[in-house]
Amino acid sequence: MDVISVIRTKRDKGELTPEQIDWVIDAYTRGAVADEQMSALAMAILLNGMNRAEIARWTAAMIASGERMDFSGLARPTADKHSTGGVGDKITLPLAPLVAACGAAVPQLSGRGLGHTGGTLDKLESVPGWRASLSTEEMLRVLDTTGAVVCAAGDGLAPADKKLYALRDVTGTVEAIPLIASSIMSKKIAEGTGSLVLDVKVGSGAFMKTVQDARELASTMVGLGTDHGVRTVALLTDMATPLGLTAGNALEVRESVEVLAGGGPADVVELTLALAREMLDAAGLPDADPEKALAGGAAMDVWRRMIAAQGGDPDAPLPAAREQHVVTAPATGVLTRLDAYDVGVAAWRLGAGRARKEDPVQAGAGVELHAKPGDPVTEGQPLLTLHTDTPDRFAYAAQALATAYDVAAPGTPYERGPVVLE
Ligand code: URA
């Protein structure tokens, strides 16, 4: 087999054979196919697509590139959730302990932020002492003793995806449905969860900008999971505006703890509960009562144990950025739009995210929202507070926000859309 013929097949809109797929994934993982060759193939896939059979084989080859985990020895059924990525998407933080408090085991192998979307591990690392990297034994012990674990995937899990995802990120080939579906599902299937709920984000702050594309991604991933014996369901959820009132690492942890304490923004609570119900249903625990577990403090108890089990101090003050800058409402009226992508870019520029994988992030950096679409605002009132340790970034972040919001005349009717679209 030679890589040029594989690239030519897809470049010329052909169907890759199972042998071509198995060979190219294996050869790329071993280093026998170069990055520039794989990026040409990824671009051909982005432009010409793959059919369901090709996607299934591609996913299977990525799973086979590494080890598989096995949670079948646990006493509880396993339930996992994966979001396709958004702005202010801190849902894993309250959700994992909540679902664990209701009787499931929640193994959340999570990622770091890249670009404008945040990453769960970066958020949790703002908790003093908390460690993302665990050995497999440590991970299983935390899962067994607390019911939930959020940690980095080990290097042995779907290594083909690790290489390919990093390559796609720098070659403009992230936004291809076959590549996103196979990337996410290879990791989730290799992880060995029994059930999986996918939170497929739609809107400016998501990879999928239209409901139609999100539906295709969701149904592709549900098909892959089901074929591999994982009970998989997907929700399409809104990412036109940030979730909650914060985007940034420690800021989002603070908001998640508010949710676990029975407060927090309504959209974060609504989505957390909707996903919890789906996870518990998929895990075979349909009678569990997540509302009670949240209101009664059981989820907070699991959170505290889960953080402490990974070296974190749940009582330690969270880091705060050294400098703040307030963006005020330009007029009196109704806020009718606050763009998720622009807020995500601003948070990233303030230091909450990284431009290259090896860059550090600032724990306290990010954007705090003082109003959501539909809220009345008064000229000069704080609309957003920008947080950073490096104030020379304020102007650059503010540029991203220049067209991020609209204020309509007072009394303009505004109907808030649902958080869960489908
Ligand atoms: N998340 C992933 O893990 N992979 C993608 O391709 C996109 C989002």
From TrEMBL:
Keywords: Glycosyltransferase, Transferase. It comes from the Bacteria. Residues 334-408 form the Pyrimidine nucleoside phosphorylase C-terminal domain. Pfam families: Glycos_trans_3N, Glycos_transf_3, PYNP_C. InterPro entries: Glycosyl_Trfase_fam3, Glycosyl_Trfase_fam3_N_dom, Glycosyl_Trfase_fam3_N_dom_sf, Nuc_phospho_transferase, PYNP-like_C_sf, PYNP_C, Pyrmidine_PPas_bac/euk, Pyrmidine_PPase_CS. Homodimer. Belongs to the thymidine/pyrimidine-nucleoside phosphorylase family. This is Thymidine phosphorylase. It comes from Streptomyces tremellae.
